[in-house]
Amino acid sequence: PTGVLIKIRDDVEMVATVGPSLEYEDIQSAVTAITSSDLSVIEVLPGVYDGSFITNGKSFTLRSTDGPGDTTLTRSTDGNLIVRVSDSSRITIEGFTITGARPNGTEVDRSGAIRMLTDDAKLTVDNCIIRDNTTHGLYSEGSDVVVKNSVFENNTGFSGGAMRLIEVGSASVRNTQFINNSSENTTTDSGTAGAI
Question: How far apart are the first and last CA of the chain?
Answer without folding.
Answer: 38
